[in-house]
Amino acid sequence: MEDDRISIDSDYIPEPGYRPQMPKRPQKKPSLSQLMVTRSKSPLKLAELQAQPTTGVSMENVGQEENELDTDRIYNTLNHYGSYHDSSNDQSTIRTTPTLTVYSEDDDLANTLGEIISQRSTDLKDNFDHEEQQEKLKGAKQFFILSAAGKPIYSMSSDADHNDDDFVNYNGIIQTIVSSFLVSGSSLKSFVTESTRFTFLNQSPIILLAISKIGESESELMNQLDLLYSFLLSALSKPHIMRSFENKEGFDLRKHLGRADLSGLNLLTKEIIDFNPGLLVGALQSIKLKKSIRDKSRSIMLNKRSKNVLYGMLVAPGGKLINVLRPKSHTLHTTDLQILFSIVFNQAKNHSEDEELWLPICFSKFNPNGFLYAFVKFVDQVALILISADRNCFFELSETSKKIIEDFKKHQIMKQINESLHHGLSTIDIPAPLIYHFIYKSKKHLQYVMPTSTNVTTLQRYYLRLYSSIDRDAKISVSFIKWDNEGKDSNSSIAGLGWVSPNYEVYLITGSITKREVLVNSAKSIVNWCKRYQERLFVCEGAVF
Amino acid sequence: MSSKKKTLLKVIILGDSGVGKTSLMQQFVNGKFSNQYKATIGADFLTKELTIDDKSVTMQLWDTAGQERFQSLGVAFYRGADCCVLVYDVTNQKSFENISLWKDEFLIQANVKNPENFPFVIIGNKVDVDENKKVINNKKAQQFANNLGNLPLFQTSAKEAVNIDQAFDVIARNALQQEENDEFNDEFNDAINIQLDGENNNCAC
In angstroms, rounded to a whole number, what is the distance separating the alpha carbons of residues B67 and B42? Predict the structure, then answer.
């Protein structure tokens, strides 16, 4: 991918009368059928248009309360910059700061293509070459965890022996690099070579390192390292780790990590590498469910809760949230839940449905100093998790789970959940034409939804780029990116739009239409749809006691 | 429950410049010797796979700069060592006298919790030279090692590979013993006391 970002000074204003050179309007608009044919035979040379559009518009000081107008404001602003109208005066009352700019010369073509808007997005998937994408990801990332003294703790591919030897050597180097910075009174966070970024998280006595060639930023890698560190804490708790190294800095922490812990780390790194959007956007995926069913499961969990149940969750495979039971005064951090769900479904692989699990787990964002105890019972692959602070109440929670599940079955809740899981969520459900895939995060609920039928791994680099192109300091930020010649067909393009507002984040990717106006309209449709159906899409209230 | 991963033994080699630290390590790990002297800059390490009583371990030997001006990496890599090797040159009185200084320096910088139990091994190198050039005899060295706490002492020649394997065998065993010696007391109260608002308000009605 070429870096098509064009930086300009924030106060850059095009000279009056300036218009980027536009391509000549096609003499005759091709009909839909002609377009379809030419696309596949590829005489429609998008590349020759030399379009380099990347749009990023940040808005600050927009009204505190978000209202419906926002979408229109962004829409207008985006179009304003996007089409380069020569009137730089009609910015109305919004102070805008273009962080990126756009030179799009394919408006006319896009207009033409806009006429085939009825084409369903599912036709576009051939643009994404899945195998090629997978191949590119191989060896593009690595994680190391070691002690401050350079003793190995974990490396991602450490099941192969020859890698283990390499790991020992890397450890020496990593430890030397990190500690030599510490000696000089500074701390090394990240450095970049030509194609690779190294990011360090120093949680003395533990050092974590991420190496990435796929263009992730320091903060994204730092989040991933924090997740791995949180996992170590979840298995051991902070006091345990500190005391392990207290008497001997050269302690080998692997002595305290069991097989389940290592396989848990393997699973977590795999989730990162295969791209779990929830880890990127910091949210839990939720499943679409009728409000009445969600409400019923909520009231059942509330009614059947026993004294020592501190939290309860109903979770579908893949860590998809169905409902939550929690005390009014306490919430659990997204990272803690992501780790819990990862552990629970990792355990599920080795246990049959009629088994009940009892897992001590340290929720490090909640309290890194001790353990809570998770009772887990699977029903039709869905996990009912009940959490207690009391290590001796397994039987109480087991009894509670039976009552809850009995009631679930009585009200056909499992059946409804399974139907919903079976149907998933498709772009076809949403009136947003030509969108191949999207991620919508509700910031209030810290949950996200996305179409479930697509292998999201292949979209990782597009989403990463969209995500990092957003200006996180701005209240509202919109970014438009187009990747020319990226599809399987060398003449096709892939485009994406990222849009972050105080209440939501939406990222979308399309495989053919790359006109900003269309994408913005689709983004608006997605946002409106998700807002309209938010009680179906998200766990809004949860069972709070 | 512990994994089957190879144990890593971290060994630090210290001593004045030119006593043969790099040569000892090269002879042990690669079976090579060079007459050329090159000062070590910063630090360097080599690893060697060993089997000690059926247990396979990886020994990571840290070669350090003897010359102060080349100690650019500081002493951070002393941390977490499982054994420290103190080397002097049998033809160099000063390097012998400095052994106890190197030992103290290590104990301070490595932040060792139980200094009296930490394994050190002393090596007097260059025994291949003519007798008349030696200024430190065996007896003197042995007495010195005993005074430092009955430390194991080896007279070696990196050049002619004399006593190298014997010395490193003891180094590895002592390092392994240190590595396996975990004074870990796991008895602590890991319960979290959670106050629910509702519990406080029980009598509010």
Answer: 9
Residue B130: inside a domain, yes or no? yes
Count how many domains chain B has. 1
Residue B92 one-letter amino acid: N
Best probe of the B interface among A158, A176, A262, by most B CBs < 10 A, is: A176
Subunit contact A165:B58, Cβ cutoff 8 A = yes
Residue where a domain terminates, one of A352, A380, A409 = A409
**pLDDT tens digits, one per residue of B3-58:** 457 899 999 999 999 999 999 999 999 998 888 888 777 778 889 999 999 899 99
In this prediction the pTM is 0.78
| Residue A30 maps to a domain | no
Tell me how crowded residue A356 is: count the other CB atoms within 10 A of its CB: 16
Chain B nearest CA to A43, separation (Å): 58
Task: Write phi, then psi, for B134 (nearest 5 degrees).
Answer: -75, 130
CA B112/CA B175 separation, integer angstroms: 14
Region for residue A118 given its phi and psi (left: phi exceeds 0; alpha: psi -120 to 50; beta: otherwise): alpha
Highest mean pLDDT range out of A172-181, A351-360, A381-390? A381-390
Range A39-42, long-range pairs (CB < 8 A, 24+ positions)? A39/A489, A39/A491, A39/A492, A40/A489, A42/A489, A42/A490, A42/A491
Within 8 A of A237 by CB-CB distance, chain B residues are: 190
**Across the interface, which of A150, A254, A545 has its CB nearest the CB of B80?**
A150
A151 touches chain B (CB under 8 A): yes
Yes or no, beta carbons of A182 and B182 under 8 Å apart = no
| Best of A153, A155, A168 to mutate (most B CBs within 10 Å, chain B) | A168
Host domain of residue A385: 5-25+40-59+306-409
| pLDDT tens string A104-161 | 333 332 332 222 222 333 334 445 555 655 555 567 889 999 998 889 999 886 444 4
What pLDDT, in 10s, does the model give residues A507-527?
999 887 667 888 888 899 999
d(CA B149, CA A33): 92
Domain assignment of residue B42, given as a range: 7-201
Distance set, CA A372 to CA A63, A324, A341, A368, B196 (Å): 42, 17, 14, 10, 15
Same domain, A175 and A237: yes
**Reduced to 3 states, what is the DSSP secondary structure of residue A48?**
helix
DSSP A30: P
CA–CA separation, A439 vs A449, rounded Å?
6
3-state secondary structure of A51: coil
Q: Which residue has the tokens 């065993």?
A: B173
Contact A416, A290 (CB under 8 A): yes
Residue A183 touches chain B, beta carbons under 8 Å: yes
Contacts of A202 (CB under 8 A, 6+ apart): A148, A178, A182, A187, A188, A208
Q: Confirm if A59 and A96 have CB atoms less than 8 A apart.
A: yes
Instruction: Give buried/exposed letters for A428-458 (b at 16+ CB in 10 A, else e).
Output: eebebbbbbbbbbbbbebbbbbbbbebebeb
